[in-house]
Amino acid sequence: MTADFIENRTFDEIQTGQSAELQRTLTRDDVALFGKVSGDLNPTHMDMAYALESGAKGVVGHSLWATSLISSLLANVLPGPGTTYRSQSSNFHRSVELGDTLTARIRVRERRDDRVVVFDCEVRNQSGQPVMDGVAEVVAPAERIRVRRLETPDVSVHRHDSFGLLFDAVTALEPVPTAVVHPVDQVSLQGAMEAAAANFIRPILVGPTARIRAIADAFAIDLGGTEMIDVAHSHAAAERAVALIREGRAEILMKGSLHTDEVLSAVLDKVNGIRTARRISHVFVMDVPTYPKLLLVSDAAVNIAPDLEAKADICQNAIDLARTLGVTLPKVAILSAVETIRPKIQSTLDAAALCKMADRGQIQGGLVDGPLAMDNAINPEAARIKKIDSAVAGVADVLIVPDLESGNILAKQLIFLANAEAAGVVLGARVPIVLTSRADSVRTRRASAAVAVLHAHALRQGLTPKDLPKELVKGS
Question: Which of 414, 358, 454, 370 is nearest to 163 (CA)?
Answer without folding.
Answer: 454
